[in-house]
Recover the amino acids of this structure.
């Protein structure tokens, strides 16, 4: 019997015109979970010298320690999606927050293997955050608000990512030691786990929830045999590359070594991309919901990204105000969240969590593979010497191509908005 004929879960998402207050409250607490996972993800970047000294690591060892987060995140994205589909939100989501809390506190222990285990647990727990937020929003809000809710969720995550740098940096060089920050952050995350346990409503589970463990992953058969799922993952992943790899990895280097901008201003200008996300994700999500169409908003966001990317790499730096292009690039990249709505809508109700987990996995793996490949290519272009503007421009062609391919693939996506004809 197919998985569609025997759903694993008995709970239903909110009806097209219904609000469920209990799930909305749980979603709001889950936004705090998402905020903390992004803060934990970005905070090590402002304490690299302290970590290197504390653990006696060279650059490669330090990169490996921090990178443990991404490996566990990608793997547990699949587990998170299957878990909420099988067991519901009541205990699954607080468990994810608890894992993040434990990993966050462990990273503050001045022992390398404990810190490594903590970093791994951070990624494992963090993998539940976005899946949980989308799951709760889909059950608490009418379908016409789903893209808006996903945009708000990503907005809060980006605020957490910014806080992990701009708030944590003065803290650990002022009132706190870096170890104290991680322990206190773990305690705060623990309180969020307790709050989510009490706030998340219990759901009625079908008998399928007591079946063998392999049935936990049965919804993935439905998701991964649907060609639309792969299209959503490719579109989202390609639209994220110019920001996650281009701006957030190489943006400061481009500004410093290519445009010869001073370090403080280079950091601020690169951070304008994240600020563009903060506004672009909820606004573009709202537009997609307001007009009941997904694909035109994705195409519009891609067009804005393409224009900003071309201007960054092929026009003189002084052509536009310093922070404008980065902000526009990030704003347009907010459209990359809309495929997260589409993948849920092109798959059946019992596979909603798995659909989000699969989407997260596809996007994250694409970014994880592309980042070192682009870095290796740039170093090869530079011939072992310092990076130059010509090298960055050559790499920029990859981001241009990614946006164009994403736009073409969007044409083949199924329109799932309520305004479709």
């Amino acid at each position: 019997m197919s998985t569609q004929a025997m759903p694993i879960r008995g709970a239903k998402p909110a009806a097209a015109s219904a609000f469920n207050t209990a799930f909305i409250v749980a979603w709001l607490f889950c936004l705090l979970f998402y905020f903390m996972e992004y803060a934990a993800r970005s905070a090590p970047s402002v304490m690299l010298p302290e970590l290197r000294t504390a653990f006696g690591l060279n650059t490669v060892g330090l990169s490996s320690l921090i990178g443990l987060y991404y490996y566990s995140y990608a793997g547990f994205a699949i587990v998170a999606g299957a878990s909420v589909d099988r067991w519901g939100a009541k205990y699954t989501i607080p468990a994810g927050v608890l894992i993040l809390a434990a990993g966050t506190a462990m990273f503050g222990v001045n022992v390398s293997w404990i810190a490594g285990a903590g970093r791994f647990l951070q990624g494992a727990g963090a993998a539940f955050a976005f899946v949980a937020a989308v799951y709760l929003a889909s059950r608490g809000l009418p379908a016409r608000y789903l893209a808006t809710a996903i945009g708000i969720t990503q907005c809060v995550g980006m605020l957490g990512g910014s806080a992990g740098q701009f708030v944590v940096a003065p803290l650990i060089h002022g009132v706190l030691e870096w170890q104290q920050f991680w322990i206190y952050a773990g305690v705060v995350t623990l309180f969020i786990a307790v709050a989510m346990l009490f706030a998340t409503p219990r759901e009625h589970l079908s008998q399928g929830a007591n079946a063998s463990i392999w049935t936990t992953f049965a919804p993935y058969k439905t998701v991964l045999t649907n060609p639309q799922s792969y299209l959503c993952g490719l579109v989202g992943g390609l639209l994220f590359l110019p920001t996650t790899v281009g701006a957030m990895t190489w943006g400061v280097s481009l500004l410093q070594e290519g445009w010869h901008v001073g370090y403080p201003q280079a950091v601020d200008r690169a951070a304008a991309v994240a600020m563009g996300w903060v506004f672009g994700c909820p606004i573009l999500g709202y537009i997609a919901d307001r007009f009941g169409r997904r694909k035109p908003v994705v195409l519009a966001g891609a067009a804005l990204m393409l224009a900003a990317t071309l201007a960054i790499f092929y026009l003189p730096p002084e052509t536009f105000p310093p922070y404008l292009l980065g902000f526009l690039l990030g704003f347009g990249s907010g459209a990359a969240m809309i495929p997260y709505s589409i993948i849920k809508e092109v798959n059946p109700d019992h596979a909603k969590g798995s659909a989000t987990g699969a989407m997260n996995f596809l996007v994250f793996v694409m970014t994880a593979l592309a980042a070192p490949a682009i870095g290796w290519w740039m170093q090869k272009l530079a011939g072992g010497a310092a990076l130059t503007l010509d090298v960055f421009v050559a790499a920029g062609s990859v981001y241009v191509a990614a946006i164009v391919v994403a736009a073409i693939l969007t044409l083949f996506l199924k329109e799932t908005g309520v305004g479709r004809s």
Observations:
- The radius of gyration is 21 Å.
